[in-house]
Hints:
80% of the residues lie in helices and 0% in strands. By secondary structure, the chain is an all-alpha fold. The relative contact order is 0.07.
Amino acid sequence: TLQTARTKFPENKAVLMNLIQEFAQNTEYKAIVPIIDEAIRYEPQNIELNYLAGYSNETVGNLEIAKKYYQKVLQLNENNYESNLALGLIYLNDFLQNEDNGEAQYNAQNLLLKANEIRPYDVNALKSLSLYYEKSGDLAQLDRVKLLLNQLSNN
Length: 155
């Protein structure tokens, strides 16, 4: 019904937003990618839309585009946990694949630490930091993170 409405009323913001919401609920990220920019033009400061644009693009493999949307979210709210973690994970993956990539290492560390600062006991951020410290050879920090992860898993 929404797709039919979108065909009949291509300029209707409400139809577009509802269609994107429906696609997101059904995890149809590939369908979101071609239409999300139009929604963001209506609401450029909308953190949820920008994050969804980043996540959708990341899911379909458009990592450079995803990075731009996650960075936009962080410009709007530097303490957004989800975007700090998502962007940190993209850079961590780059660093894990190429340990000589200093930019990826720097960005992964800063973003993952920021995510950890926002939610100190979140297991996803801690596990990511554990991978980072293991790859970078920072054994003192690795031990600290592993100890915290062990404490959290015993609770």
